[in-house]
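Hi all, long-time lurker, first post. I run a small reading group and we've been trying to get comfortable going from sequence to structure in the token notation. Rather than ask abstract questions, I figured I'd post a concrete chain and ask someone more experienced to write out its structure so we can walk through it together at our next meeting. Sequence below, copied exactly:
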Amino acid sequence: MPVIPLECPSCGDELILDSDESAAICSSCGKPFVVKDAIVLNYIKLVTAKKADDELAVKEAFEIEDGVLISYNGTFSEAAIPEGVTVIGNKAFEDCRDLLTVYFPESVETVEDNAFAGCGNLKTVRLTDSLKKIGKYAFSECISLKNIELPDNVEEIGAYAFSGCYQLSLVKMPSAKCDIHEKAFAGAENVVFEWPDDWKTKKLEK
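-- Answer (accepted) --
Happy to help. Here is the structure in token form:
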């Protein structure tokens, strides 16, 4: 006979009951209830509470002011940047070793200098078409990053933006209107660039 703690559906007091029983009467409020229904209700409450706690933890992981993501304080393996963020600030994610995957919302237009520098375990970055600028050293030393697709609308990629990304093997390049610093991919010696047709000079220093 498994004995379990259970909240009374009527008054909320905690009771200790035999889960094999079909019905019980609360010792606090005196009201009867079906044990099976109470178990289901308690489970739903626990799941709802955990979800709320998780959502709060995710929300508190981001420090945002006026659309600028100033810093990330989470320890999650995945980070979905909140919609409404337009700028990922200088060093916002710097040295976040727990981060494996990051998702950009459609609102982000700028990744500032050193934003993801030193995120050594970052493997996947999902950018969106709204992105226009990637600053200096933005993804430098992201040594686990293997490929990245740069949206066509990107207009500027700064010096050493992807420097030291030693495992980087494939980069889908943006359109030719993008101003790419010649050392943007310095140190990524094995990278292959996939160039759109509008590029005339298809060469960068590695």
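A couple of things your group might point at:
The two ends are 69 Å apart (CA to CA).
Helices lie at 35-60.
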